[in-house]
Write a structure and sequence with these properties.
This protein has about 170 residues and is of the alpha/beta class. It folds into two domains: about 40 residues, no CATH class; about 100 residues, LarA, N-terminal domain (Rossmann fold, 3-Layer(aba) Sandwich), CATH 3.40.50.11440. The protein is built from five helices and seven strands, in the order ββββααβαβααβ. The strands form three sheets. It has a three-stranded parallel β-sheet with strand order 5-6-7. α1 runs parallel beside α3. It is globular. It starts with a strand and ends in a 20-residue tail after the last strand.
């Protein structure tokens, strides 16, 4: 990864602004960076072509992970599993990732009723059923327990201690 510190200049005139559009949910989010803003631009040292068959690549990665045995060997029939997926504000291919992970858990013998799919909403509003279906597919939403994380509901939270750096 190549890191370049950039300073876009000093003028905040309307003509000198840079407008960016990034994927955001089903749409794009537009924002402006003014010339006086400073930041860091990260670029890959080489161009990586897009995957031609992402679902196949995901399944291959799960079958032969780097530095670990496959998930189907880690999971056991009596295990309880929580898979966290992104909410509608994130452009993540959950519809490809989650079914592949669920297939690995099925092969490991983990029963459907021991699997919870948790939408990582952060402090966003709860997701709708339609948003969950868009992220996971109707067959996954109908087959598994799917719920939203409620970050501000202390009754649903469990204190797990602190990290080595002291972060709760």
């Amino acid at each position: 990864m190549l890191q370049i510190n950039v300073s876009l200049g000093q003028s905040n005139s309307w003509e000198n602004r840079s407008v960016y559009r990034v994927p955001f949910g089903k749409d794009r989010l537009e924002f402006v960076l003014w010339p006086s803003m400073r930041g860091t631009l990260l670029e890959s040292k080489k161009e990586i072509p897009p995957l031609t068959a992402p679902a196949t690549a995901i399944r291959q990665a799960l079958a032969s992970p780097v530095g670990s045995v496959p998930l189907r060997q880690l999971a056991r029939p009596g295990d309880r599993v929580c898979l966290v997926f992104t909410d509608a504000t994130r452009a993540c291919p959950d519809a490809l990732l989650v079914p592949a992970l669920l297939e690995e858990l099925y092969r490991a013998g983990v029963p459907d009723e021991h699997i919870t799919l948790l939408c990582g909403t952060g402090l966003h509003r709860p997701s709708t059923r339609d948003e969950k279906v868009a992220k996971l597919g109707v067959s996954v939403v109908d087959r598994y327990r799917v719920m939203d994380h409620a970050a501000q509901d202390n009754a649903q939270l469990v204190y797990l201690g602190t990290t080595a750096s002291g972060t709760p």
